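pipeline/complex-builder :: batch 7 item 3
reading input block
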Amino acid sequence: MTDPLTTLSETRVFGGRLKRVRHLSAAVDCEMTFAIFLPPQVEAGATVPVFYWLSGLTCTDENFTQKAGAFRVAAELGLAIVAPDTSPRGEGVPGDPDNSWDFGLGAGFYVDATEEPWARHYRMHDYVTRELPALIEANYPVTDRRSVAGHSMGGHGALVCALKHPGFYKAVSAFAPIVNPAAVPWGEKAFGSYLGPDRDRWLEWDACALITTATERLPILIDQGDRDGFLEAQLKPEALVAAAEAVGHPVTLRMQPGYDHSYFFISTFIEDHLRHHAAALLG
Amino acid sequence: MTDPLTTLSETRVFGGRLKRVRHLSAAVDCEMTFAIFLPPQVEAGATVPVFYWLSGLTCTDENFTQKAGAFRVAAELGLAIVAPDTSPRGEGVPGDPDNSWDFGLGAGFYVDATEEPWARHYRMHDYVTRELPALIEANYPVTDRRSVAGHSMGGHGALVCALKHPGFYKAVSAFAPIVNPAAVPWGEKAFGSYLGPDRDRWLEWDACALITTATERLPILIDQGDRDGFLEAQLKPEALVAAAEAVGHPVTLRMQPGYDHSYFFISTFIEDHLRHHAAALLG
């Protein structure tokens, strides 16, 4: 049913195993590489829930695994971690003709593009919410209990995944998410190309819009550094807090004094997020 | 007395501050960049001891700070961390004419070169044991209690620094160190160029040789993965254990099953090393 998986590398870390795996994705119609961490509990025969991590602009599957420092706590709690790439890649996949870092390759924005030339490959939402979990659950010793988190563009992705698929994820959280992409420059640039000029259609991929009609009130945990250079122009977490309050959706926004947009910020607070997810995944 | 320091970046992490700093080094006669982590205790007015980290081949000051996951425990314990670059760099600094990764730029081997064209700049031992600590202690809220650790080429560096400077460091440890560079290909290539063909002079920079005449018996902690691809040809930690046993020098070699040479290995065991160092630095 699933295409064969090619394990590119396998590395021992915190008593578990980190693998980089390549496969041919039907959803995005190209080869994709993801990272999966299997905690030590699986070597004792356990099946474990899965924490999906969606990275931000310019990242691959490797940024989180190398820089977040997440494996110590994931090994303690018995969580698998899956980190996909941030866009389709490879021969035949179009990138931004202007070669910018905030659109195209490394910047799939976790939407399903409808416009040419993006519609064939730029279907990252379908990939991360349907094809990838099915593949993970068919091939690794994991349960069907899942959660999703991410950073910046990937924080947007995590919120949209959870809000669009009630019941599919047990927990959701984000670091410095783009909560209102339909109303900020990064989102306007990406959505205008991937989804076309009709801004009403952008709202299907905007957490601030989706939260108003969500049928499941999954609590959202957000950490945001107050020295994040993208805070005012691109991130605007207070917009999500306002939208959530209007409908009674539980959101915890923690403004972290002095922190920026980097993985140093993520590494500082990832333990809190993993414990937040574990409480729901293992409860 | 010291040249001015230029702070390139300052990032909040685990309640402390990570800075990248550039300065003109007299020891290596070029501009150098180092990283310094100051734990939260210094913002409350404390002065703290310093853990020096020496990285391996191809690394800069950034590998350890981004990948080792050391700041959580350093913040808890109240340790500063200083991570220098692995060689002189920049305009006018000669690199390997063959452009290989295991000699020249990124591969200073923490020796003081005597041969041309290396002798002017490749004086990393003088830099890390004399100029850099003096600069750190003159410019940051730290004490004169220091320790040193490193990885691979930097593990060699840490051992040699501690063995050549009795009393200067309170603790020493290493991950997958090159313990006997005078007798393995990496060391033969580097020492033959930096130090010349007389192999007797190489022994001044070889931990297995230095340990036999050490006047201080500082306990050495070593972690080594048994799936490390460099273990048999380049690292040979059992050679140091044998040399240490012959003179009664305390060495703890922990062979870690399944681990390789990567920062995933380092991240798994760095907490143990930091606690080992803290016991001596804070005791």
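note: The beta strands of chain B are 6-13, 16-25, 30-38, 48-54, 80-83, 142-151, 171-175, 220-225, 251-256.
queue -> next item
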